[in-house]
Amino acid sequence: MQATYLLLAALTPFIVFDIWYTGIYLFWMMKASIITYLVIFGLLPIIFHYSYSLQKKILFLNFVHWPLNVDFSKPESVGMKGTRNFYLITDQEVKIGVWQVLPQSLLNDSTIITDNDYENVLSNTKQPVFLYMHGNSGNRASGHRLELYKLFQSLDYHVISFDYRGYGDSEVVELSEVGVVEDSKYALEWVLKKVNGSSPVFVWGHSLGTGVSIHVLALLAQENIQPAGLFLEAPFNNIAEELSVHPLAQIFKHLPWFHWVIVEPFYYNNLRFESDEHIKNVQCSIMILHAEDDNVIPFSLGEKLYKAGINYHGNGTNQIQFTRIDSSHGLGHKYICRYEKLPNIIRSFVAETCKNRTD
Asked: What crossing angle do the helices spanning 208-221 and 177-195 adopt, rounded to 10°?
């Protein structure tokens, strides 16, 4: 017993020191945790709320350059055959990079060499022409976009794809909703003038590009100008709701001031992309495509946009169609281009639209 007391007496200073050290460690850990929490959920949201520049970066993600080191002047370097690179100068004096992709039936035509040859083909074509408006991040050479161009090409359609200002090799100009919409409006007007009614022109928007394309068509409708049809791949109804359900926003959803801090700044800074409002002015046929397992823009937002369109236009004319893609296909946000039924969906929609235009 005496030996035990002696042992405890000998160990007491070490035990006391260990408890003291543990207490100090826990105190600093708790302090660090509190500071980290306040920075992440207090300071950063406030900075975000008042920083228009940061809001634009989060929305457009144009600083994400993928793939890297693309030579846009050589589309063949990323596997695009029968493709020429050129540039357009918009009404706002913004230089945007563009690709024109020939349909399959013209790939082996040795007479199509110069830019003039490409433009003449476009002006005299009988095949449908697709103008592609991409989503945020990357550029017109991103992998899933190349897959879609090749699908259009295999269907014997022309493709015009371009990068908005600040993307790819387009001119670096301040980004805004008005800016990217103006770039896209100019590109569509250019295509419509080149084709000059010889063939139907379709617009294909993906992700953020759905908001851009609907806004563009709403503006052109005021001038009684509309393409033959509009495809909306993985669309949202408006930025406010997309921000509220985006996976990255979920860590902030518990904040009582979430809407004021995160959502409202986009609205007041005119980064709205209110597709559910603009769709009422779109007069051409619309095909919405959305995968159930889309984890970037939830399927429910595509449904809301569809319902908004139906509320405005009614479904008697079948002007707006909705294709629901089962999650079992695993196509998510980017790869509807791999959907086995997509070629037939596109062909049928194009044929039906063209028939309605001639009736």
From this structure: 60
Catalytic residue (one of 207, 213, 275, 285): 207
Task: Decide if 105 is catalytic.
Answer: no
For this structure, is 53 an active site residue? no
What span, in angstroms and rounded, lies between the C-alpha atoms of 345 and 350? 9
Selecting among 134, 215, 278, 333, the annotated active-site residue is 333
Active-site annotation holder among 163, 183, 276, 294: 294
Strand order in the sheet with 129-133: 83-89, 95-101, 158-162, 129-133, 201-206, 229-233, 285-291, 320-325
Q: CA torsion sign, 130 to 230 to 180 to 65?
A: negative
184 CB-near residues (< 8 Å, 6+ apart): 133, 162, 164, 212, 213, 216
pLDDT per position as a tens digit, 93-144: 999 999 999 999 999 999 999 999 999 999 999 999 999 999 999 999 999 9
pLDDT digits (tens, 9 = 90+) for 271-292: 999 999 999 999 999 999 999 9
For residue 86, give the nearest of 157, 147, 160 by alpha carbon. 160
φ and ψ at residue 231, rounded to 5 degrees: -105, 130
Active site residue 294: yes
Which residues make beta-bridge pairs with 159? Answer: 101, 130
Distance (Å, whole) CA 28 – CA 17: 16
